[in-house]
């Protein structure tokens, strides 16, 4: 990211979005403090980062055998998967997966909870009949990507609905029991719900099946979250046994980092504007600086400010540019995919926004704005991962990563790797590994491990 040939007005405005080494070290220090608050019995209530124990303690060893179901509910569609593991993770032929996507109709999303879980149970039963496993009792892992307070591996209460769902009679209730009740009412299939988890835990488990050194799961997509393996002695919230393994995966819910003001020192007026106009003001502040839901809008706000100041497009914007939400996060990835000195993608994006007479200097400046914003997101994610690596202090760790920003941005992986390398303790080595289907395969693996240890 070079400032060469970038207009002075642009670099001045963008300077407040650039993080120094001191910034990153203070972010790590604050995050570590907040994690301790979240794990503490007396401090969890007031903590921004809730650090929910997932009750997942065993990791896959790659030798799991059998048929497993996974149910992945996280939006307006849900998936059912049948996964067959052959006991050897080194052979692709020993992994077989079938899946089907089902819609959740609007009237079900806004109806009562019984209707939702009856609909899911019906689709599960139909799927099992289609694949001729309806006479078998299969273990199931349930990915439920809404805020949960877990009380056990198979017991978790919905904290609040998000993503447009508003089914009555579910908030505060155990979602596993509601699913089991619906399956039982049907009476035509037998399913053993072995675990409920979120997609971050699934991301970790999916990678751990391939690599036993995996200890962190990270999502950088529409939202952002991380989970990691913590020693039980550090989890004051722990209310179960202390048998081996003396560890548990912690779902940090780190998107809420900074909600108590501890990140105010890096918040810009653009971040404050994003927060003010969001559906959840004063919440998920760390996520709003990182995730794909907000990154494009952050770039748009900076571009609009510089256009109004006359520093871009000769001060001539467009209705499309001035409309909130119109600069998509995918535009950032597309613009930064142009080769240095070429602006084909950038011109295409700006033309889509109905901007005219675009100069090469405009393209250089817009690309620089995108680079500053994506680099900050990568560095914030990296500071979080480095904090977890230093906290665990294991010598060799694989970090499982998923999410559209990490997957599709051309430089995000490299920017994260470079930043983590500069922040971790000198004797720690790490790898960032793209996770395949954490919410599907990961859920089946949690079920496989849970049924193995029963």
Structural features, described:
A 6-stranded mixed β-sheet has the order 1-11-10-9-12-13, sandwiched between helices. It has a 5-stranded mixed β-sheet with strand order 4-3-2-5-8. By secondary structure, the protein is of the alpha/beta class. The chain has helices at 8-14, 21-39, 106-109, 113-130, 175-186, 199-210, 269-276, 285-290, 292-308, 319-322, 329-337, 344-352, 360-392, 404-408, 412-423, 438-452, and strands spanning 52-53, 65-73, 77-86, 95-103, 138-144, 148-152, 155-158, 191-197, 214-220, 224-231, 247-251, 396-402, 429-434. Strand 2 and strand 3 (77-86) form a beta hairpin.
Task: Detail the topology: elements first, then pairings.
Blueprint: H1 8-14, H2 21-39, E1 52-53, E2 65-73, E3 77-86, E4 95-103, H3 106-109, H4 113-130, E5 138-144, E6 148-152, E7 155-158, H5 175-186, E8 191-197, H6 199-210, E9 214-220, E10 224-231, E11 247-251, H7 269-276, H8 285-290, H9 292-308, H10 319-322, H11 329-337, H12 344-352, H13 360-392, E12 396-402, H14 404-408, H15 412-423, E13 429-434, H16 438-452
Helix pairs in contact: 2-13, 4-5, 6-16, 9-11, 9-13, 11-12, 11-13, 13-15
């Amino acid at each position: 990211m070079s400032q060469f040939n970038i207009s002075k007005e642009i670099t001045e405005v963008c300077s407040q979005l650039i993080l120094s080494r001191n910034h990153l070290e203070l972010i790590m220090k604050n995050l570590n403090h907040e994690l301790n608050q979240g794990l503490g019995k007396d401090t969890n209530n007031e903590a921004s980062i809730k650090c929910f124990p997932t009750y997942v303690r065993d990791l896959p060893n790659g030798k799991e055998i059998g048929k497993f179901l996974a149910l992945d509910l996280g939006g307006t569609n849900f998936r059912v998967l049948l996964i067959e593991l052959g006991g050897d993770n080194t052979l692709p032929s020993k992994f077989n997966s079938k899946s089907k996507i089902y819609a959740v109709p609007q009237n079900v999303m806004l109806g009562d909870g019984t209707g939702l879980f009856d609909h899911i149970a019906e689709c599960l039963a139909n799927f099992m009949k289609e694949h001729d496993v309806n006479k078998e009792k299969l273990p199931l892992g349930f990915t439920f990507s809404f805020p949960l307070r877990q009380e056990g591996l198979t017991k978790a209460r919905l904290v609040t609905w998000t993503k447009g769902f508003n089914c009555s009679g579910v908030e505060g209730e155990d979602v596993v029991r509601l699913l089991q009740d619906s399956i039982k009412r049907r009476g035509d299939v037998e399913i053993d719900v072995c675990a409920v988890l979120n997609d971050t835990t699934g991301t970790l488990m999916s990678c751990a099946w391939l690599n036993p050194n995996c200890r962190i799961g990270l999502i950088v997509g529409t939202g952002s979250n991380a989970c990691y393996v913590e020693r039980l002695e550090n989890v004051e919230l722990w209310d179960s046994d202390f048998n081996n393994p003396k560890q548990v995966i912690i779902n940090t819910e780190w998107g809420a980092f900074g909600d108590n003001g501890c990140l105010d020192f890096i918040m810009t007026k653009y971040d404050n504007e994003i927060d003010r106009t969001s559906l959840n003001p004063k919440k998920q502040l760390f996520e709003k600086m990182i995730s794909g839901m907000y990154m494009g809008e952050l770039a748009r706000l900076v571009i609009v400010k510089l256009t109004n100041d006359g520093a871009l497009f000769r001060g001539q914007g467009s209705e499309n540019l001035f409309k909130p939400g119109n600069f998509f996060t995918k535009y950032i990835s597309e613009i930064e995919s142009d080769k240095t000195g070429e602006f084909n993608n950038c011109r295409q994006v700006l033309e889509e926004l109905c901007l005219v007479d675009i100069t090469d200097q405009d393209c250089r400046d817009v690309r620089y704005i995108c680079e500053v914003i994506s680099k900050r997101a990568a560095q914030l994610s990296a500071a979080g991962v480095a904090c977890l690596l230093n906290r665990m202090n294991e010598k060799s760790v694989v970090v499982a990563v998923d999410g559209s920003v990490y997957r599709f941005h051309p430089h995000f992986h490299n920017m994260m790797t470079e930043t983590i390398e500069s922040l971790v303790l000198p004797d720690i080595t790490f790898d960032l590994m793209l996770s395949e289907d954490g919410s599907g395969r990961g859920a089946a693996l949690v079920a496989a491990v849970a049924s193995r240890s029963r």
